[in-house]
UniProtKB/TrEMBL annotation:
Domain of life: Eukaryota
Domain Fungal-type protein kinase positions: 278-443, 477-609
Coiled coil (residue ranges): none
Gene3D superfamilies cross-referenced by the UniProt entry: Transferase(Phosphotransferase) domain 1 (1.10.510.10)
Protein name: Fungal-type protein kinase domain-containing protein
Signal peptide (UniProt feature, chain positions): none
């Protein structure tokens, strides 16, 4: 999040994400103000109930009043705003979801912790009516059905996360809000807002009056989750915090300011880290668990009366500046109407270049997958158009920012191969060499037998790019300070292979990884190419007779090399690879030049992961599970520490077994094999540390003038020659450990 988040004015966010012109939104604001929307009985009662509930720390008490207010705004606007377009999805509702856990579609026992319970979701009335007919709801015990409705991430158009007011100066702030709302209802100028930043003593909390909030549709029954709050809410604003996490950007010619509140910008509000994590988790689940049906996603964070809108796509987050929905109610109501006016394209559901199975699909029911969708591709050798129809989902990348790769089984008309086929759909960086071109470079070399077979491909750069949509409206593409990465949609039809983890056993593990090491070596020294993303999910296989034949898959991050071993073309400044299997050096120094030894080290971690986790289907004990989780789910520093420990303070790999590296009993016969593999990297890192120490001594002696520059240059050259020998030892893995 820290590396991929932008801030922008709210009126520009609304214009770009929701596709609603600023002047139209402003006309709605004027209409709401003229027609006195705030005097509506349901809205007035809901706002008062919300403010009274906000005086407590019971977060769930905020949901119903907010839903009632938001739904009434949409209903009122439909009947009273002249020229308002018909809502494309006519039965959208803001519905309480908490404490319902949204179904992520993953199997039981999946290591990824995704127990997500969004507070309020934007779904259709049609979906609400259908929930009780879903198998997950019917199979749940009656007493638990309020937590198991069967709602899926694909059902949700957008969501809102509500948090109580900060405890700091809550009472005084609430008094000011209530006075501001009362003044607005009476048509008077509201009082200036008190600051939420703590100063002085904390005033006494006023006693709330009991107000009956109007009924709203529920996915969960109220009052059934008394233990909902597991933590005390943290402050929403921090004194002196900076509004933006990004470096200063070039000044842009933004549209006229009509949304931002001077008060909130002057306070430099920043969202507490805990709330940011919630929003990032929801975005991760939405983009990863909707089976390729979402290109992007937007959501809303409400803390007390402060509102912030979030947009997420393959390049990261764009967050709006904040407003107070109570003090600037007409503006907030206009944004709610703009959300209701969104069609499939503005909800990220209009997948370009894919035709739905039926043209008359109900717009109130989002697609649950891309099964049945079709596209047309040009066969490169037959020179004919081929219709490609998607079947069942095979794989969806679990990632917040990246390529968002999605793989489906396909059938083709006319048939292009007797073998089963899949289509790989991803959002690729336009500045990198396409995968199909890299695979073509290996044709004619022996290593091509270990690479995937591609039949058809197409880059949809002319039909669709990020810059053609929201990103193009948000940012100037020629900005040298620009941080988002331009991407286009790429489709490739491959022969279908099977994941290697389903076949690795005690009888073939050495054979499989010997093939991998040969493959990496030949790519580097015969094809002049590095893969740069060696991970378990990128290792596939096919059976050739009785032999397990390794297929090295996914060349999205691969690069060609020049005669000096340096990448040709775009390189990027971020880490290359999959974090659980990434080299220790690349985790520690992401700017480091990617070398063959980094891919070989990733191969070691993949082998080690297999030795700990496999064989599949067997129950894994706590010690082995904890080691894998330390590579997969912890923070970056914790992962680095856990992996670096493997190559530190040990004279033998056997000292790590079974304590720090609990090898599965089935693979214990490979301990000598692992020891040889480990020894290469242990020796290499020891020599690398000695090399850095020698360089530090030379720099110190030069600084204190014990040696002159010519002497220092000679010593550095000698040290680098020793380092070259060390690099050669890193590369000589095959002969060092294979048994």
């Amino acid at each position: 999040m820290d590396e991929s988040t932008e801030r922008m004015p709210l009126r520009l966010w609304v214009s770009a994400v929701l596709g609603c012109p600023v002047d139209r939104v402003q006309s709605w604001v004027d209409t709401f103000n003229k027609e006195r929307l705030c005097e509506d009985d349901i809205i007035g009662t809901s706002v008062q109930a919300y403010l009274q509930a906000a005086n407590s720390e019971r977060e769930e008490a905020l949901y119903q009043p907010f839903c009632a207010m938001a739904n009434r705004v949409l209903e009122w606007a439909r009947d009273h705003v002249p020229g308002l377009p018909t809502y494309p999805i006519p039965d959208l509702l803001f519905v309480r979801n908490d404490p319902v856990v949204v179904d992520n579609g993953r199997e039981e026992g999946d290591n990824r912790d995704a127990d997500c319970k969004p507070d309020i979701v934007l779904i259709s009335q049609t979906t609400c009516n259908d929930l009780e007919n879903r198998p997950k709801y019917q199979q749940a015990p009656p007493r638990k059905r309020h937590k198991t409705t069967g709602v899926d991430w694909c059902d949700i158009f957008s969501l809102l996360e509500l948090k109580p007011f900060p405890t700091s100066r809550r009472a005084a702030y609430l008094v000011g809000l209530i006075a501001a709302w009362s003044s607005k209802v009476r048509g008077e100028e509201p009082l200036p807002a008190p600051s939420l930043v703590a100063s002085g003593s904390r005033p006494q909390r006023p006693t709330p009056s009991s107000l009956q909030s109007p009924g709203v549709p529920l996915l969960s029954e109220p009052g059934t989750n008394s233990n909902r709050l597991k933590r005390k809410p943290e402050p929403f604003v921090t004194e002196g915090a900076n509004q933006s996490r990004k470096r200063p950007r070039a000044k842009r010619n933004y549209l006229p300011e009509i949304y931002e509140s001077d008060y909130f910008l002057s306070e430099k509000c920043s969202v507490a880290k805990e709330f940011e994590d919630h929003m990032a988790r929801y975005a991760l689940e939405m983009l990863s668990c909707t089976r390729g049906t979402r290109l992007f996603f937007f959501q809303c964070l409400v803390v007390g009366d402060i509102v912030e809108f979030w947009y997420c796509d393959a390049s990261g987050f764009v967050r709006s500046y904040q407003i107070s929905w109570v003090r600037e109610f007409d503006k907030f109501a206009a944004i709610l109407v703009a959300i209701a006016c969104c069609d499939y394209a503005h909800f990220g559901l209009d997948i370009p270049n894919l035709s739905p199975p039926a043209p008359d699909l109900n717009p109130s029911i989002p697609p649950m997958s891309l099964t049945g969708y079709s596209t047309t591709m040009r066969h490169p050798t037959l020179d004919i158009d081929v219709k490609v129809t998607l079947g069942s989902e095979v794989f969806t990348q679990y990632s917040l920012v990246g390529r968002h790769t999605c793989v489906y089984d396909v059938t083709t008309e006319p048939p292009v191969s007797p073998d089963p086929l899949v289509i790989k759909m991803s959002l690729q960086s336009v500045c990198r060499t396409p995968e199909q071109e890299l695979l073509a470079l290996a044709d004619g070399f022996p290593v091509s037998e270990h690479l995937p077979k591609a039949f058809m491909w197409t880059d949809r750069a002319t039909e669709w790019r990020l810059a053609h949509g929201v990103r193009g409206l948000m940012f100037l593409q020629n900005d040298e300070d620009e941080t988002y990465e331009e991407r286009c949609q790429r489709h490739i039809v491959f022969k279908k292979y099977k994941p290697i983890e389903s076949v690795i056993s005690s009888s073939n593990m050495d054979h499989v990884f010997n093939q991998l090491l040969d493959c990496l070596h030949e790519l580097r020294y015969e094809v002049n190419m590095l893969h740069r993303d060696i991970s378990l999910s990128n290792l596939m296989y096919e059976m050739r007779g009785t032999v397990v034949w390794l297929i090295l898959n996914d060349f999205d991050l691969a690069t060609r090399l020049d005669e000096h071993g340096r990448p040709l073309g775009a390189t990027g400044s971020h880490r290359m690879g999959t974090l659980p299997f990434m080299s220790v050096d690349l985790i520690k120094h992401p700017e480091m030049l990617h070398l063959l030894r980094h891919d070989l080290e990733s191969a070691f971690f993949v082998a080690l992961w297999c030795g700990i986790r496999l064989p599949s289907g067997q129950k894994i004990d706590a010690a082995r599970r904890d080691v894998l989780l330390s590579w997969e789910q912890h923070g970056l520093n914790a992962i680095l520490k856990a992996k670096a420990q493997i190559f530190a303070n040990s004279d033998s790999f056997f000292q790590l077994v079974p304590g720090e590296i609990p090898i599965s009993p089935e693979f214990c016969q490979y301990e000598m094999w692992f020891d040889g593999f480990w020894k290469v990297f242990f020796d290499g890192y020891q020599k690398l540390a000695d090399h850095h120490r020698r360089l530090a001594v030379i720099q110190r002696d030069l600084r204190v003038k014990r040696i002159n520059e010519n002497q220092a240059e000679g010593l550095i050259k000698a040290a680098n020659s020793c380092s070259g020998v060390m690099q050669a030892r890193f590369g000589d893995i095959r002969s060092r450990f294979c048994i």
